[in-house]
Structures are given as structure tokens and as C-alpha cells.
């Protein structure tokens, strides 16, 4: 066992010791390592670098209702108390992410609507933007007939009073065409754009689970050899062509770069899905 001398500090000041097994690792990467805690409801995230953005988010939201994001707690490491240089935090455990098993078609609309509500709640309640929304960063718990959805991986989150950190970058395929992300309202629009791309992806994955994973994504495909093509597609997207791809219109602008070659085929996968209007409403503010 590891971390036998660690404890979670709750917002009310309560301190609770906990243990985690290094053998129960859930994942690792450039962001650090996540392992399961013994009670099955928390995970421990450790990093070689201070988790400054997570700590900032945690401090500013500790008294708020965590309906739409994973609750995070500081970890005390005895005999030393780690504060601004925190390299360990405890978080609510989520059973799945949206990138994992395909969703049943009957669930798609209700989950999409819930995601929109949760993002709105996140923006209003926390006064932060997430800045890296994608299927891998949306956690799910399924208990009996209920599904709980929360935004996870808050290392890119930025408060409304902060400037955009140049080190933060949304994953390419979910990046919006918006340029001035120092404005909080633009960052909110960028979050909504990324959520639109995310819902598009889970719909395609659920309807066509056997096709290449990259073909599920709005701005990428298995036949795109150069990621710069995705950037051009994003920058050249118009509200007219977005409506066409989502099956909401029968007209499109073929003057945009490689629209027919790369984007028009996605219409066949998506056409007539009821989530189209939800996605369009999320993404269209980025064109305004």
C-alpha cells in the first residue's frame, strides 16, 4: 500500500486518512498518474509538477454545489503539509468516460440535453471555463436507471477574472475558430463548440460503432494524413455548412476548402439524428 500517511482535507475542515494501492492504477500520462483509493469513491491524482490550476479551481469552488464537475480535495502529506505546491489531489471516482462504451441510441438525446445543462451549470456556478472538453474529459456513473455526468480533468480550467494561459491548448479536433480567448465569454463559446463536437462524436460512435474511430470525429477522419487539414476545416467552417452536415439544411457552400472531400461524407452518418439541433445551437455562437 502507498500513501498510508495521507489524508483528504474536506471543505468543512474535516480530515480523513485514506490509503490507495499503487497496483490499482487507473491511468497515467503527461498530466500525472491516477490510482484508486481504498473506499472505491475517490481517486488520487499525483504529478511531478504542482497541480496549480486544479488547486486554484478547488479553492474557488469549495463552497459551491458540485453537480457538474468532479469534486476535488487537497491532500495533506504527513509530516509536511503541501499547499500551493500541491502535487497530490483526491477526486470523485467516475466509472466511465464518454470515450468508452458506445451509448444506446435511445439515450443519445437525453444525454446530449443533460450535457448542455451541465455545461451551463458549470459556467454559471464556478465562473470558470473548462477549456479542454472532449469525450475523455466527461465522466459518467451509471447506477440502476440513473446516469450521472460530470466534467473531469480540470487542469486547463480558467476563472473569468484570469487571462488565457498560453500553455493551455484544447485538443485539436475540438478547437473552435474563435481567436480572442482572453475574453471569458469567448472561452464559454469555445467550451460549447467543443461540447458540440463531443456530442457529434458520441452520436456517430453509437450509430456506426464499427467504423474507424477517427471517422466519428467532426473535424478528423482516418483518411486525413495531415492534421493541418483539420485546422483548415475548422477555420473554414460556416454556419451554413454546419447545418448541412447535421442534416438541418439541404444547401451548402462548396467554396470552402475541401468541404466536399472531407466534411460532406459525414452528413450520411449523421443525417436525421435528433441531436443535430442541439449540436448546432451549441456551436453556432462561435460564428457570431
- For this structure, the quaternary state is single chain
N-to-C series of helices and strands? EEEEHEEEHEEEEHHHHHH
Structural class: alpha+beta
Which strand order spans the largest sheet, edge to edge or round the barrel? Answer: 1-2-3-4-6-5
Report the sheet-strand fraction. Answer: 15-25%
| Helical percentage | 25-40%
> In total, how many beta strands?
11
Give the mean pLDDT: 86
Dominant shape = globular
Radius of gyration: 20 Å
Strand count, sense and barrel status of the largest sheet are: 6 strands, antiparallel, barrel
Q: Report the end-to-end length measured between terminal Cα atoms.
A: 54 Å
Q: Runs with pLDDT <50, length 5+? A: none
Q: What count of helical segments does DSSP give?
A: 8
Written overview of the protein:
31% of the residues lie in helices and 22% in strands. The protein has 288 residues and is α+β, with helices and mostly antiparallel strands. The strands form 3 sheets. A 6-stranded antiparallel barrel has the order 1-2-3-4-6-5. Strands 7-9-10 form a 3-stranded antiparallel sheet. The protein is globular and about 65 Å long. The mean pLDDT is 86.
Provide a concise account of the structure shown.
The protein has 288 residues and is of the alpha+beta class. It contains eight helices and eleven strands. The protein has helices at residues 52-61, 108-126, 184-207, 227-236, 239-245, 259-263, 266-270, 276-283; strands at 2-9, 15-29, 32-37, 42-46, 72-77, 88-92, 96-97, 128-129, 138-143, 146-151, 158-159.
